[in-house]
Inverse folding.
């Protein structure tokens, strides 16, 4: 599941070790540790600070963690041992729209995370798949007005559009020069599922929920599924933008498959 979400580094913290019987019980920690042999796991007490910044004197039995050829005992140390994410600020601009607001005196405000690239005030962007060109008026991060924002930032910015109803969650903002316009006719995903041709299911991709029909299935070491979206949408290939290509296939109440988009066909 973590791999499907693109999570490559993970650590488990077992909190409230001061509340076990007896306090800071090694037996209780070992019971939980046995459930996860491959993920680093650290016993902590956030109330008293045990193994957060400094090594705990209450748990001398803890042998420590190992990650990326490094060892330690505290949460702070393992954060320092994690590999930093690649800086995508110099790549083409992509932002997932999570919410859209209409604020009196400001206009239409878009909220989301910048997946790659950067934005600045007065910059023109394109909202896909509407092929709508907008100009950024005001940018805010954590209620602070800024002039520029970069990949990895959760931002809100206002645009000059007066038509809030056309812009919705799941759409993607991009550079005007990186034209992503055009409706997708089908896309092919690689997954490990047991689904049948002709099925109409829901595909969850980034912040979108898309009704799709499965028109072709090829099974080998993994399953290749060709899907036709039943509504206008925008997705990306995994080789171009991994964060915009991971999908979950299922119903409104159940996920039955996970995968990545490996190819896209657009309507001409």
């Amino acid at each position: 599941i973590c791999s499907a979400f693109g999570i490559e580094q993970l650590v488990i913290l077992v909190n409230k070790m001061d509340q076990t019987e007896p306090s800071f019980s090694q037996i209780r920690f070992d019971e939980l540790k046995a459930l996860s042999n491959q993920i680093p796991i650290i016993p902590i007490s956030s109330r008293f600070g045990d193994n957060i910044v400094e090594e705990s004197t209450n748990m001398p039995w803890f042998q420590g963690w190992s990650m990326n050829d490094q060892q330690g005992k505290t949460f702070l140390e393992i954060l320092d041992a994690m590999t930093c994410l690649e800086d995508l600020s110099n790549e083409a601009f992509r932002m997932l729209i999570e919410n859209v607001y209409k604020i009196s005196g400001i206009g239409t405000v878009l909220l989301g995370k910048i997946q790659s690239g950067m934005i600045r005030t007065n910059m023109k962007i394109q909202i896909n798949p509407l092929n709508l060109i907008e100009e950024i008026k005001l940018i805010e991060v954590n209620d602070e007005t800024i002039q520029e924002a970069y990949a990895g930032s959760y931002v809100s910015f206002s645009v000059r559009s007066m038509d809030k109803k056309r812009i919705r969650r799941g759409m993607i903002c991009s550079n005007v020069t990186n034209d992503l316009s055009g409706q997708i006719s089908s896309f092919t995903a690689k997954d490990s599922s047991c689904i049948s041709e002709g099925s109409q299911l829901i595909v969850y991709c980034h912040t979108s929920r898309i009704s799709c029909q499965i028109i072709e299935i090829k099974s080998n070491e993994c399953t290749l599924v060709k899907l036709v979206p039943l509504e206008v949408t925008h997705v990306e290939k995994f080789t171009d933008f991994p964060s915009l290509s991971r999908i979950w296939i299922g119903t409104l109440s159940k996920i039955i498959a996970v995968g990545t988009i490996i190819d896209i066909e657009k309507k001409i």
